[in-house]
Design a protein that fits this description.
The complex is a heterodimer of chains A (about 425) and B (about 1050). Chain A has about 425 residues and is an all-alpha fold. Chain A is built from 18 helices and 3 strands. A two-stranded antiparallel ribbon of chain A has the order 1-2. In chain A, helix 1 packs across helix 6, helix 3 crosses helix 4 and helix 13 crosses helix 14. Chain B is α/β, with parallel strands linked by helices. Helices cover about 25% and strands about 20% of the residues of chain B. In chain B, the strands form 14 sheets. In chain B, strands 7-6-18-17-16-8-9 form a 7-stranded mixed beta sheet, sandwiched between helices. A 7-stranded mixed beta sheet of chain B has the order 30-22-27-24-26-25-31. In chain B, a hairpin with a 2-residue loop joins strand 25 and strand 26. In chain B, helix 9 crosses helix 14. Chain B is globular, with a radius of gyration of 29 Å. Classes of the chains: A mainly alpha (about 425), B alpha/beta (about 1050). Chains A and B meet through helix 13, strand 3, helix 15 and helix 18 of A and helix 4, strand 2 and helix 30 of B.
Chain lengths: ~425, ~1050
């Protein structure tokens, strides 16, 4: 029976829960709607906490005496002005913003209310990095590599152990001499160094072999060290603005060529001019990590005054630190690779969309270029330029049976392709 | 050898001068400058031993290694607001125009990141048709000239525009109020808007209709006043008609150097060149030249007669009477000549050819004498050339200056009647005859204002300087002839605080100083109505600015009555004078001297004498030997001589110039420019010219010359490239070319193999072929018939490839850096019977006084079996599978083996770091902060110790290929042009893909006239030359000559 009653109650509770969920989700839907409506219709001209093209909207309900008027105003401000010419606040607002007309909004009253609710409920987002120490610029080091120190400690321990063992051996030997009255071995009377040389003399073959190995190893290391001169793989300088490719290219998935548009046209990929930044950043004045600190540097460069929303200050070009530096005698053309070769930017520049701070991903050495030219197929398909060449090359490489041609087959390894 | 002509390229070679033989046997006639850098050690009292050297070596290696370890911090500064049309790394082209009073050209300006770096011809212009001269394409360097005025000046002190404007407005106003006289002196202006601005300025002084308080006087440094006067007599109008060389089958020129300095030479070069190439019917134009000094034009003539300047009248009257007797016209008084090279026969033959080409011929004359010009007009009239090759309805507007106006201006000035003189674009202090006394007259003028952009002798004497922009910074319109207009548009923001001359005038006249606006209004009012199918001004204007030209072809030929004044004129012509005569000529590279300081032009060798960085006395070697005992000298220092004429003297070195009329000497004008006190380049001889017959004459008699006994070093680029009698230039006569088979006049080289069999060169091949059969094979064809030797290609190459200017001293050490040179060979007919072998110069020991000349542009031949590639120890020079001989500077260690092994001697070694070495501060433009902006960013600036040579503009090839790849189509014919072929407008130099049948070069390479230089070496060049055909009958000996076979054992 009790079981029965208990089971009977279950649907009631579940009903209650369902109602509760419905209630909450209902109000939630409204707030969500308000946010979406705001972003879709208002955000291009209004911000909640500051002036953009139009006034800041925080507390807009309090500023209007009648909410109904506010709704009418929002829906069609020109009509409202016509019909309520005595509303001094509305006409004052219109004058204050240089008689710029707010376009009529095709929203229902409920939707306007939802937007107003959203504005009331809005809380300024706390910048994440405002709490983070300023010194932690750039990516957090993903755990420093301590292996070397461990190895060093281990080697020290080993040396001590060997030393102790040698001493022990020495003592045992002298005890043996004393006990058995044996002749002292010649090395016993020698110092450490003399003993070492004595040992070398006794083991000439091993010594020679070891010497050769050491010389080869040193030469190899030396050679590598020389080769790495002028190679700045991993070069990660501090930039005047803490610009994050991760946020722009990764999180917001902005195409590389939106900013680096000359990569498709000329030899330089081009560092975007400040006016390109301002396409988006007239609206976005605060970032997730550094708040307004970094973006205000763009404003300073562009001469933009966010208060008045106009370009009124002197312009100051940004001095970026160049990361990918080819020597002057090497000619490289981005459009050749990006447009004709259809090479992805990431092939050479690495996972830029994951880099908070940009670094040089590739070696940018001649060997690195040449390697790629040996391995990469030329995109000959559907390119009229290559039609005849492809035909001719197939004839030449008939015996080898090569059908797809690498860059090296069309002379991509020749000096004057890059040096002139 | 297919003709028995012997070529030599310097007189030392011809005379087997021992000095020359010594030099000829050495590849580098100078020792390596090790002493120079070790010498600095010696100055400090220490000597560098081998041990020290090794220490330094070790130290510098370590230092370099350590230095290289530092991470460089390179800043990159993008635009704040990027101009829409600029993409970094991609050039922009703007149509513009060049005009400096001497040269006119419709041009395309190539800019990189907003900097003009190269000037080429604008093909949309039907006036110059895309052709330029060396002076025009070098003008881009003058933009960056740091000697330009950087601000307005008052009495030599820098000032600012506000105060200068206020000052001048006040002064000019008070002159206007008191009714004073203001004179504006300019070069010949043809810009309609400028002339409108000038008349606006003039209105402020000419208060009443017809008042002459303001006058605009035009003046040309190289005067055409005589021609204007003659045409005024004959046609009633002071004008110069248009000459159409493209329609002329026979050209007779008396002292008109129309390929370098006569009227619109940029246009004539194109038309003349195209007519020189035998067409499919094997027809070509015939060119006679009669002149005293060997001009560029004369050196191109089929038949050249050397006459004294005082005999020009006689030649013209002789020609007149020969033609007159045939057409039944009245003959005139005929002069006589002192003939030593068959001039009478040549004139007769010219008359015969002219008569058989009536209406398709041209007689032109460069003598500034109205009487001679009247006779020439009469000849052209008899030949019915007016209306066909000479167009009176399309007058040329480049030369308007009448010397009589200049004379009256100076007398006005001397009498103190001129209150203010404004000078623009001309330098009368420099270029007027001394007897005019312009400088003294100028002192009598209360207010002198110069509107020149750069210091001239005149502007330095002016009270005020209101500097004009460079033409690359200016808006303007030009009207070179008839109703043909072109636009000048700015391609860079003004570098200095300068203002356009037109704006200054408008400003002082109290108008708005926006000349661009003024010009647009002028065009809207006057040119828009002429434009067919254009309703709206903005679209018309944008279209015109884009094209750079606006041309209205006159449909109706205006009938102009001709009054024959030849008979009266002939009466006035004097007899030929005895004694030495002097010709003051305008040189090909410097012209009237308006760009005389331009280092590219100074280093461009004179086409005939090949001398750079100087002017000099040209003299026939016969005169030098017999009359004056002056040593023939190009390698050794030249003798200095003093030339005196009517109280004026000048001391200059003497240079041998075969072809110069015996008994005459020549000196180039336009030299001696530069700031007072500084070292001037050459000497100014303009003041020696004299007023004769009411016009300025640059032909002087009563001249004396004497050796001073001193020596002077002369730098000449051609004495160190010896050809040793091999088949370098292949030349034949038109008759042989027409009648004989190809093997007769362009024989395939045969070699003798080990079994004594004669074989073609390719059958005796030592090397494996490069894979040049697939893909591209870049090549070039150079037509020796179309090449006039003008040198525009050389300066274009300098601009495109950052070729360093090395200066006179280095040129003397045979270290010119030009990637491209134009070799000039004199030829003479030697009797083949006395000719006993190819390498024997015995038959030529007596130099010919009046030789023929051939030009041959030489650059790297891009051999497919290149001798330089096989000897490079570090593989710095290699072959591409597109047929290019590649030079990799960063690999080169400077052994110079390649230069030793190059049969064409086209490789150049960087003896110095020309862009940084203090030795070259004065000559190398790249050392100047500003002039460095002209460097082409796509081409490496080479450092000391590396070899360089023509790359066939590989940067342009790569850019052109990339363009085609992006479009997805094969490289089109003409899509890629090298700097030289673009400067040549494809007249002589044609570039393209020899493997592509659609390219012009493909058929040119197969042409009968085509040959490879030094074919017998088997190096297989990718550069093809087209045999030079001279429009002369076959020499009598040529027919029975035994054809020599090159006996080279393989």
């Amino acid at each position: 029976m009790s079981v029965f009653t208990f089971t009977k109650k279950i649907p009631k509770i579940s009903h209650l829960i369902a109602v509760a969920i419905m209630f909450f989700s209902l109000s939630n839907v409204y707030a969500q709607d308000g946010e979406n409506l705001f972003k879709a219709n208002c955000a291009s001209c209004h911000k909640i906490d500051k002036k953009l093209v139009g006034p800041a909207l925080q507390g807009v309900r309090d500023r209007w005496e009648e909410e109904a008027n506010l709704i009418l105003w929002i829906k069609n401000s020109q009509d409202y002005l016509k019909n309520n010419s005595d509303d001094s606040y509305a006409s004052g607002l219109y004058e204050q913003y240089n008689k710029s007309i707010m376009p009529a909004q095709a929203l229902s009253d409920d939707e306007v209310v939802a937007v107003l609710d959203y504005i009331d409920a809005w809380q300024p987002a706390t910048p994440v990095a405002a709490a983070a120490p300023a010194g932690a610029a750039g990516p957090v080091d993903a755990g420093e590599d301590y292996t070397f120190y461990w190895l060093l400690a281990f080697a020290l321990v080993l040396i001590i152990v060997i030393r102790v063992l040698i001493d022990v051996r020495k003592s045992v030997r002298s005890v043996m001499v004393e006990v058995k009255g044996e002749e002292a071995a010649p090395e016993d009377s020698m110092g450490m160094v003399e003993q070492l040389f004595y040992w070398f003399k006794q083991n000439k073959k091993f010594t020679a072999f070891a010497t050769i190995i050491v010389i080869v190893a040193l030469a190899f290391q030396g050679w590598n060290a020389l080769l790495s001169i002028g190679v700045y793989q991993g070069y990660e300088p501090e930039q005047p603005i803490k610009f994050s490719h991760k946020i722009h290219a990764g999180d917001n998935a902005i195409s590389c060529v939106y900013c680096h548009h000359s990569a498709e046209k000329g030899k330089h990929s081009g560092i975007p001019s400040v006016n390109v930044c301002m396409n988006c950043h007239t609206g976005i004045s605060s970032g997730k990590v550094y708040g307004t600190e970094e973006i205000s540097k763009i404003y300073e460069a562009a001469g933009w005054n966010p208060e008045t929303s106009s370009y009124e200050n002197p312009q100051k070009p940004i001095k970026w630190v160049r990361i990918h530096n080819l020597p002057d005698f090497a000619y490289f053309n981005h459009s050749q690779h990006v447009v004709v070769g259809q090479v992805e930017c990431q092939t050479c520049h690495g996972p830029v969309q994951e880099m908070d701070v940009l670094y040089q991903y590739s070696e940018l050495t001649m060997g690195w270029c040449i390697n790629c030219h040996r391995e990469t197929n030329v995109k000959m398909k559907d390119n009229g330029y290559y039609d005849q060449l492809q035909k001719d090359l197939k004839e030449v490489y008939k015996e080898e049976g090569i059908e797809e041609f690498k860059v090296e087959h069309i002379g991509g390894l020749e000096c004057a392709k890059c040096h002139y | 050898m297919n003709s028995s002509k012997k070529y030599w390229n310097s007189l030392e070679q011809l005379n087997n001068d021992p000095e020359f033989e010594k030099a000829a046997n050495k590849e580098f006639s100078e020792h390596i400058p090790v002493d120079e850098f070790i010498g600095k050690q010696k100055e400090n009292g220490s000597s560098t031993s081998r041990r020290d050297f090794l220490k330094f070596l070790g130290f510098s290696l370590t230092a370099a290694t350590i230095a290289a370890c530092e991470t460089p911090v390179i800043k990159s500064i993008p635009y704040v607001v990027k101009p829409e049309e600029i993409t970094p790394g991609v050039p922009n082209y703007y149509a513009s125009s060049y005009y400096d009073g001497n040269d006119y050209g419709s041009v395309l300006v190539k800019t990189r990141e907003g900097r003009p770096i190269f000037i080429e011809g604008n093909k949309m212009s039907s006036v110059t048709k895309g052709r330029l001269t060396a002076r025009i394409n070098s003008s881009v360097l003058s933009l960056y000239d740091s000697r330009r005025y950087s601000a307005p000046k008052v009495n030599g002190e820098d000032s600012d525009w506000t105060s200068v404007d206020a000052d001048l407005k006040g002064k000019l106003n008070s002159i206007a109020n008191k009714g004073g006289n203001v004179r504006l002196l300019t070069y010949s202006l043809n810009s309609p808007s400028t002339l409108a601005a000038i008349s606006k300025f003039g209105e402020t002084f000419n208060k009443e209709e017809g008042a002459l308080n303001f006058k605009h006087v035009q003046y040309d440094a190289i005067s055409y006043s005589g021609m204007l006067e003659a045409n005024e007599r004959d046609f009633g109008k002071s004008m110069i008609p248009e000459y159409d060389f493209s329609k002329a089958n026979v050209i007779v020129s008396i002292d008109a150097d129309f390929l370098s300095n006569w009227l619109m030479s940029s246009a004539y070069l194109n038309d003349y060149s195209l007519n020189r190439v035998p067409d499919s019917n094997k027809k070509m134009s015939k060119h006679y030249q009669f002149e005293a000094f060997m001009s560029l034009t004369g050196s191109n003539a089929d038949v050249r007669g050397a006459v004294k300047p005082s005999e020009y009248g006689a030649v013209v009257t002789m020609l007149h009477n020969k033609i007159a007797s045939s057409v039944g016209a009245a003959s005139i008084k005929e002069g006589s000549i002192n003939d030593d090279n068959g001039v009478a026969d040549k004139v007769a033959s010219a008359a015969k050819d002219l008569l058989s080409n009536k209406g398709k011929s041209l007689v032109v004359c460069g003598v500034n004498n109205p009487d001679i010009q009247c006779v020439v007009n009469s000849i052209n009239n008899m030949l019915s050339n007016y209306g066909s090759t000479i167009d009176l309805s399309t007058p040329l507007k480049l030369k308007n200056g009448r010397d009589s106006e200049m004379v009256s201006l100076i007398s006005e000035m001397k009498s103190g009647n001129v209150d203010a003189l404004l000078v623009y674009g001309c330098d009368p202090s420099f270029s007027l005859p001394a007897e005019f006394g312009f400088n003294e007259a100028m002192e009598k003028v209360g207010l002198t204002i110069s509107l020149d952009g750069k210091p001239t002798f005149t502007s330095e004497k002016c009270n005020y300087v209101a500097p004009d922009h460079n033409f690359l910074e200016s808006w303007n319109d030009l009207n070179p002839k008839g109703n043909y207009y072109s636009i000048q548009q700015p391609t860079i923001k003004a570098l200095y605080s300068t203002r356009q001359m037109q704006s200054s005038l408008l400003n002082w006249a109290g108008q708005s100083s926006d000349y661009y606006d003024f010009m647009r209004k002028n065009w809207e009012a006057n040119m828009l109505p002429m434009a067919e199918g254009k309703m709206f001004f903005d679209s018309f204007w944008n279209h015109t600015v884009h094209d750079g030209v606006f041309e209205v072809k006159s449909s109706a030929t205006e009938e102009t009555a001709f009054t024959n004044n030849a008979s009266a004129a002939a009466q006035k012509l004097g007899n030929s004078s005895e004694g030495l005569e002097l010709v003051l000529y305008a040189s090909n590279s410097i012209g009237d001297g308006s760009n005389g300081e331009n280092p590219w032009l100074q280093e461009l060798p004179d086409p005939v004498t090949k001398v750079v960085w100087d002017n000099y006395i040209t003299m026939n070697p016969v005169d030098m030997g017999s009359e004056y005992e002056i040593k023939t000298a190009q390698e050794t220092p030249a003798d200095l001589a003093k030339v005196s004429v009517s109280g004026q003297e000048v001391i200059l070195p003497v240079v041998a110039s075969p072809g110069q009329k015996i008994g005459t000497i020549g000196i180039a004008v336009g030299y001696g420019k530069g700031k007072a006190g500084a070292d001037l380049i050459g000497k100014n001889v303009f003041p020696m010219s004299t007023l004769s017959n009411g016009n300025v004459s640059r032909n002087l008699s009563g001249v004396s010359i004497e050796k001073t006994g001193e020596k002077y070093p002369i730098a000449s680029t051609q004495t160190h490239h010896t050809m040793m009698g091999r088949k370098i230039v292949n030349e034949t006569s038109l008759e042989t070319y027409k009648k004989e088979s190809k093997e007769e006049w362009n024989a395939t080289a045969l070699l003798v193999d080990a079994f004594g069999r004669k074989k073609k060169v390719e059958e005796l091949n030592l090397w494996n072929e490069h894979p040049i059969a697939q893909g591209h094979r870049w090549g070039m064809s150079i037509d020796l018939n179309a090449c006039t030797g003008c040198g525009a290609c050389v300066t274009a190459c300098h601009a495109e490839n950052n070729v360093p200017v090395v200066g006179k001293d280095e040129v003397r050490r045979t270290r010119t850096m030009s990637w491209m040179r134009i070799d000039r060979y004199y030829s003479s007919d030697a009797d083949p019977k006395k000719n006993d072998g190819d390498r024997n110069y015995a038959a030529m020991e007596n130099p010919s006084a009046y030789p023929e000349v051939v030009y041959q542009p030489i650059m790297c031949q891009h051999c497919n079996h290149a001798p330089c590639e096989t000897v490079c120890p570090v593989a710095a020079t290699t072959h591409s599978n597109e047929g290019l001989n590649q030079m990799t500077y960063n690999r080169c260690v400077g052994t110079r083996y390649c230069a030793n092994n190059c049969p064409f001697k086209v490789r150049r070694f960087n003896w110095f770091n020309y862009v940084a070495d203090e030795k070259f501060v004065d000559v190398n433009p790249a050392q100047d902060e500003l002039m460095r902006m002209v460097l082409n960013p796509d081409v490496t600036v080479r450092s000391r110790g590396v070899m360089e040579k023509c790359s066939m503009c590989v940067q342009r090839i790569q850019a052109g290929k990339l363009d085609a790849k992006k479009k997805g189509e094969p490289v089109q014919n003409g899509a890629i042009k090298t700097a030289c072929s673009s400067a040549c407008n494809d007249n002589a130099i044609v570039f393209g893909d020899i493997n592509d049948k659609k390219h012009a070069i493909w058929s040119l390479a197969q042409d009968d006239r085509s040959y490879n230089m030094l074919e017998e070496l088997g190096v297989k060049p990718n550069i093809y030359y087209q045999t030079k055909v001279r429009n002369v009958p076959a020499p009598s000996y040529e027919k029975n000559i035994e054809k020599p076979v090159e006996e080279h054992s393989a």
